């Protein structure tokens, strides 16, 4: 503003600048804003999603009714214009004819034309008033309160395709990196690690982590299993996001972590549901694997036992454990004299019982003259099996 020089009572002069107040902002145009469809102002007992949906549908219905009313008014204006043009045309035709009997018709048509023009003028005045009211007092809502000033779409360049590896080759090549990722427990760390190691972002990563989860559950490392399971779901969600947008999975790493960090409730709930489901499947698979291992061990033990059975159908290990201690030790030491002495010390019934069992189990392959209590010398009592040895080595 302009500067003014003022002189005081003491003769001193000083300059001053006149200030003008800025024009206040008129906020009247914002006085008719319709609340957003998703305003969080509902009572706790109200089904909020249903209420928001109803509000949105009701507003759309009101807007549709307004459009229909405006279309009806436009049609009415057009109809009045057509009627007016038709009456003028009829008047011109009667006036050109010059018939004395047409005077009455001319008067009637003139009156109709005047009525139509008056009706049209009233209608247009009301229409102009409604438009002025709508312009000065607009009804703002979430759909019309703003519009795009500029809009553009940026398409990232696809990364170079990585070489396809079989699952076993991938596991061998990236085992250390996948285990490191599985041990991470912070979103920021996981995000950075996948950005630094984009080769891990594929289906093989989730497959490896699932197998590792089952191994950890079998080993009883439940806390570590839960952490690895979380990382497994992270890998799976990135792959699902890539499939939904039809992009390279490596391009979806930022998108996934942005959504999960922004606390989108529905997205986080879906993530937690998948995590709980995976943990349950891992626990069940660990139980099944233990049962399978026990069944396989039992089957192998049974096959091993059947392969050991002697000519009489007895298991040599079971028979060996049932023998008297001195005879058992003689078999283990492969000491024929001690073996003969042990049988000689038994009663005839016990000697025959144990002798038959060691023969049926294959522990002793006797010579033709061998029998418990026979008076043959030691050389005749030796068993003739595999080159004359009297006993077989028992592992």
Plain-language structure description:
By secondary structure, the chain is mainly α. It is 62% helix and 3% strand. The protein has a two-stranded antiparallel sheet. Helix 5 crosses helix 8 (265-308). The longest helix has 50 residues, at 48-97. The relative contact order is 0.04.
Q: What portion of residues belong to β-strands?
A: under 5%
Separation of the first and last Cα atoms: 114 Å
Q: How many beta-strand elements?
A: 2
Outline type: rod-shaped
Please work out how many helical segments DSSP would assign. 13
The arrangement of helices and strands along the chain is EEHHHHHHHHHHHHH
Rg result: 51 Å
In which range does the helix fraction lie?
A: 55-70%
Mean pLDDT: 78
What's the structural blueprint in terms of helices and strands?
Blueprint (H helix, E strand, L loop, with lengths): L2 E5 L5 E5 L30 H50 L5 H34 L30 H17 L3 H10 L6 H16 L3 H24 L7 H9 L3 H44 L7 H7 L2 H9 L2 H9 L3 H13 L17 H4 L14
Antiparallel strand pairs: 1-2
Helix pairs in contact: 1-2, 3-5, 4-7, 5-6, 5-8, 6-8, 10-11
């Amino acid at each position: 503003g302009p500067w003014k020089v003022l002189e005081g009572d003491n003769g001193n002069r000083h300059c001053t600048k006149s200030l003008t107040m800025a024009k206040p902002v008129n906020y009247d145009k914002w006085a008719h804003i319709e609340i957003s469809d998703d305003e969080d102002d509902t009572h706790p007992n109200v089904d909020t999603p249903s209420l928001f949906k109803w509000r949105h549908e009701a507003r759309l219905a009101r807007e549709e009714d307004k459009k229909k009313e405006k279309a009806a008014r436009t049609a009415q204006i057009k109809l009045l214009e057509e009627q007016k043009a038709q009456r003028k045309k009829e008047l011109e035709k009667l006036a050109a004819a010059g018939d004395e009997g047409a005077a009455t018709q001319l008067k009637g048509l003139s009156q109709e034309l005047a009525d139509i023009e008056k009706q049209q003028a009233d209608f247009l005045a009301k229409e102009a008033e409604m438009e002025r009211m709508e312009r000065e007092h607009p009804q703002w809502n979430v759909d019309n309160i703003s519009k795009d000033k500029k809009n553009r779409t940026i398409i990232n360049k696809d990364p170079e395709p990585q070489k396809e590896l079989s699952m076993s080759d991938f596991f061998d090549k990236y085992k250390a990196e996948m285990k490191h990722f599985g041990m991470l427990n912070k979103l920021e760390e996981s995000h950075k690690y996948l950005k630094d190691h984009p080769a891990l972002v594929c289906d093989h990563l989730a497959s490896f982590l699932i197998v590792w989860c089952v191994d950890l559950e079998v080993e009883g490392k439940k806390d570590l299993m839960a952490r690895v399971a979380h990382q497994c779901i992270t890998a799976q969600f990135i792959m699902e996001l890539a499939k939904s947008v039809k992009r390279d999975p490596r391009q979806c790493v930022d998108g996934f972590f942005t959504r999960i960090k922004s606390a989108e409730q529905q997205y986080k709930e879906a993530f937690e549901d998948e995590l709980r489901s995976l943990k349950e499947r891992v626990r069940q698979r660990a139980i099944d694997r233990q049962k399978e291992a026990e069944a396989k061990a039992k089957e192998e033990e049974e096959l091993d036992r059947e392969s050991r059975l002697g000519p009489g159908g007895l298991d040599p290990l079971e028979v060996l454990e049932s023998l008297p201690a001195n005879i058992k030790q003689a078999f283990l030491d492969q000491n024929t004299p001690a073996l003969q002495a042990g049988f000689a010390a038994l009663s005839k019934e016990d000697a025959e019982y144990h002798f038959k069992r060691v023969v049926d189990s294959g522990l002793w392959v006797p010579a033709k003259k061998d029998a418990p209590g026979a008076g043959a010398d030691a050389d005749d009592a030796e068993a003739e099996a595999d080159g004359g040895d009297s006993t077989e080595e028992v592992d």
